[in-house]
Design brief:
Number of helices: 16
Radius of gyration: 21 Å
Oligomer: single chain
Number of strands: 15
Structural class: alpha/beta
Strand order of the largest sheet: 3-2-1-4-5-6-7
């Protein structure tokens, strides 16, 4: 972003509502973190209202809801506990808003948009909804509700109502924007892609001596080809499928080793790996803190993104790209939007094809390195947070000035750095 342009903007007071156990080193948490960091770099004041549990971030103003002593574990995805946690967060958000007097409210997740919608109407402030994916589809992915359940139609109606509350919905992918256009023609939809810190996430993140030591600590044998995954461990993330594919890959490539990083359910997946005979070929270091993520990814030769959801973004891929790692993912629109022609795509949900694509890359290391170099170059050129904060501030400027394009308009940077709209 041009510093001169930033200095001409008035400093904004932004209230972010994050109905989650922030910060917890995954997914939308990283987007919230990087948005706040980028906004504060340009002089804007941001307060994040969130649940009682989660890690504090140095330099970030966080207001937590009342402590719930019986619920200390981080909540991932849908949970019945969210009902009372969201009620407590509503109280905290209201108190914070009345004291802070924000210029606008920036809500994450549908529960945040519901809380923010009430506050926005009460305080007569605009509401921005940072859309991470469909509420009902997430519940289905997590097995929280069933396709034939009585709750599904009611929840779909609730989701549509929530989607109509904000002045603008920001999506992290154009695929999500196009899906929303089918049902949200009365609300402005804007694509503000995810991004990555390409200075920290870089191929040379580890010195040679550090690399050797970290490989030793993780039990990675010498001369192994390392396949890395960093994200949540869950069926909808493809974790079960990935382990089954790993069995096929290990049979074909005796030097293949899998570094599968994330949480929850580490013990469950360790047990599954043992049952598949992969105990000596897989390392599960558990939850990796975001400040350490680049060091662990630097051990990889290939990165995998087997996420099964068709409605959510796949933010881990941005980090893979910045690290210069070739990426194997399923053939889904969110993945193609990020990787373009530089991704290696397996048929959606096909574990045998996924394994075959990984094996092909392991057999052609020069091809993998070339793809990784091209992905790294694209990340450096087009995926910086400085570019994203400019797009975000453009949305803020417009809603504060009550200027809106036609519903469903897209606002994304062209290769030359311009913006474009389509109807």
């Amino acid at each position: 972003m041009n510093p001169d342009l930033a200095s001409k903007r008035r400093q904004l007071r932004i209230l972010m509502i994050a109905p989650t156990s922030y910060f917890a080193d995954y997914g939308c948490h990283v987007r919230i973190l990087e948005e706040v960091r980028a906004l504060t770099r340009y002089g804007h004041r941001v307060i994040v209202c969130t649940y009682h549990n989660g890690n504090d971030i140095p330099g970030m103003i966080i207001r937590r809801s009342i402590d719930v002593p019986w619920r200390k574990r981080v909540i991932v995805g849908s949970s019945r506990h969210k009902l009372y946690l969201d009620a407590a967060l509503s109280v905290t958000s209201l108190r914070t808003a009345l004291k802070f007097k924000p210029d606008l409210i920036h809500a994450h997740l549908h529960e945040g948009a519901l809380i923010g919608g009430t506050l926005a109407r009460l305080m007569r402030r605009p509401l921005i909804f940072d859309y991470q994916g469909s509420l009902t589809e997430e519940m289905l992915d997590h097995g929280f509700i069933k396709h034939d359940g009585a709750l599904l139609p009611w929840l779909r109606r609730l989701e549509r109502r929530i989607n109509r509350l904000p002045n603008t919905i920001i999506t992290s992918s154009d695929n999500a924007r196009l899906r929303l256009m089918q049902s949200q023609r009365s609300t402005e939809l804007v694509t503000v892609l995810d991004a990555v810190d390409t200075e920290r996430f870089a191929p040379d993140a580890l010195a040679p001596a550090e690399r050797i030591e970290l490989r030793r600590c993780l039990g990675i044998p010498d001369n192994s080809q390392v396949i890395v995954y960093l994200g949540l461990l869950a069926p909808y993330q493809g974790s079960d499928l990935l382990l089954r594919a790993a069995r096929t890959i290990a049979d074909a490539r005796p030097n293949a080793f899998f570094l599968l990083m994330g949480f929850p359910g580490v013990e469950q997946y360790q047990h599954q790996a043992e049952q598949l005979g992969l105990g000596a070929r897989v390392s599960f270091p558990g939850r990796i803190s975001y400040p350490e993520a680049h060091r662990y990814l630097a051990l990889g030769d290939i990165a995998v993104a087997p996420k099964m959801s068709l409605t959510e973004g796949n933010g881990k891929i941005y980090n893979y790209m910045a690290m210069g790692l070739p990426v194997v993912a399923f053939d889904a629109e969110p993945n193609r939007e990020i990787l373009g022609d530089l991704g290696i795509y397996a048929r959606s949900g096909d574990e045998d094809d996924f394994a075959a694509k990984v094996i092909d890359l392991l057999c052609e290391p020069e091809r993998g390195r070339a793809l990784g170099t091209a992905l790294r170059a694209h990340a450096v050129e087009a995926l910086s947070w400085d570019a994203r904060v400019h797009e975000l501030l453009t949305v803020y400027d417009r809603v504060l000035a009550h200027r809106s394009p036609e519903p469903g308009a897209q606002i994304t940077p062209s290769p030359a750095g311009r913006t474009s709209s389509d109807d």
